[in-house]
Amino acid sequence: MYSFIFAVIGLILGYILYGKFVERIFGVNPQNETPAYSMQDGVDYIPMPWWRAFLIQFLNIAGLGPIVGALLGAAYGPVAFVWIVLGNIIGGAVHDYFSGMISIRMGGMSIPEIIGKYLGISVKQFMRGFTLLLMILVGAAFISGPAALLSSLTPSHLTKGIWVIIILAYYIIATLLPIDKIIGRFYPIFGLALIVMAVGITIAIFTGGYIHDIPEVWNNFHNMKANADKYPLFPMLFVTISCGAISGFHSTQSPMMARCLKNEKEGRKVFYGAMVTEGIVALIWAAIGMSFYGGVHQLNSAIAGYNGEATIIIREISNTTLGTIGGILAILGVVAAPITTGDTAFRSARLIVADFLRFPQKKLWNRVLVSLPLFAIGFTLTQVKFDIIWRYMFWSNQVLATVVLWAITVYLAQQKKLYIITLIPALFMTAVVTNYILIAPEGFQLAHWVGIVFGIAVPLACLAIFTRYQKR
Hints:
By secondary structure, the chain is mostly helical. The protein has helices at residues 2-26, 35-38, 50-62, 65-74, 79-105, 111-119, 121-153, 160-176, 183-207, 233-240, 249-258, 267-292, 296-305, 310-357, 364-381, 386-414, 420-439, 448-471. The protein starts with a helix and ends with a helix.
C-alpha cells in the first residue's frame, strides 16, 4: 500500500509547501479588518475562532462527497490516488482558498458576484442563475437521499414523504437562524465525527488485513473500471471524484466562512486546510473501497450489484470494520452529513439572491422572503428521481469549478500576480467538462473521439481569448 501512504504524505506536504506558496502569491495582510468585524450583523457576519470555522468549512464542503465520490472513483483503480493528490493540491485547494480570500477582500461577496466582477456582466447574469440552480439541486438531492434512507430505517408510517417534510422544515430553520445558533454550535461536532470515522477506517486498513489488496499505481496505471470503453478514464474519473480533488460547490461555501474569519492569516488553515483534509478522507475511502471486497474488480461487481448505491457500501464497510460504533457513524455519514450539506446549500442560495437583489438579511422577515421561493423549488425537485438530479449535479458542479478558476485567473492577472497557478487547472477542467457533456449518458452521447477533439479545441479557444485580454 505504498501508493496510498505516499498519496497521504503528498497531500500533507502540499498543504505545508504549496499552500504557503499560494498564500504568498495572494498576499495576506494580517492588519486588514475582515468582514466579520467591519460588517458584523449578528446573522451571517459573525467572528468565529479559526478551528470552528475550519470544522464548519470541512463539513460544508464534504458531506458525503469525499466518501461517495471516492468509492465510485476507486472503481477506476489506483489512478484515483493520483487524481485526488494532484487535483487537490494544484486545483481544488487553490480554488477554495482564492474563492474564500477574494470574498474576504470584497466584504464577503458571494461567488456569482465575484465571477461577474472578473468575467463580465453577461457571465455574471448567467452564473447567478446557474449557481442558484446548482445550490437548489444540491439541497433537493440532500433531502431526497436521506429521506429515503430514514424511511427504510424507521416504522412504516414514517414514509419518505413525511421525512422529506421533516428535513425541509429543519432546512428552513437552519437557513433562517443566525449562523452561530445551529451551524456554529453543532456542525463542528459533525465535522469532527467525519474525521474520526476516517481515522477508524484507516486503523482498520492496517489491522484488518486489507493492506494486501490495495493495488499500487505503478502496476495498475490504467482504467480498471468495468465497461472501460463506455467509461473512459478521461473525463469520467475527473467528474466522478470531485469532492476530495476539485469541486465548484466549495466556492459557494467559502464566502460563508469568509464572513466569519477574524484574520486573513487564518484563510490557509480554513480554506486550503479543509480541502486537503477532505482529500485525505477521500484517499482513505478510495483505499478501503479498492480492498474491502478483495480488489478493484470485486468493487466493480459490488457497485453493479447494488445498482450504484454507494450508501449501501458505506454502511457495509462501516459496520464490518468499526462494529457498533461504525454502525452509528455510518448512519451519521449517510444521513447527518448530507443533511448538513443540504442546508448550507440553501443558505448559500439565500445569500446569492440577497447579494443579487442587494437585500439586507439582518431582519428575519427579509430572510423569509428570500428563502421561501427557494424551498418551494427545492421541494418540487424532490419529486424527481434522485439519480437524475445527482447525475446532472455532478457535471454542473465541475462547470462551476471551471468558471471560478477562470475568474481567479483574471483576478490574478489584474493584480499582476502569478496567474499560471490557476490558468493550468482552468484549462484542464475546461477540457474535462467539455469532453464529459459530449460523451456522457446524460449528455449528447457522442463518440469518444468527438469529445477529445472538442476537449482540446475549447480550452485552446479559451486560452486565445485570455491571451488577447492580457494583451489588451
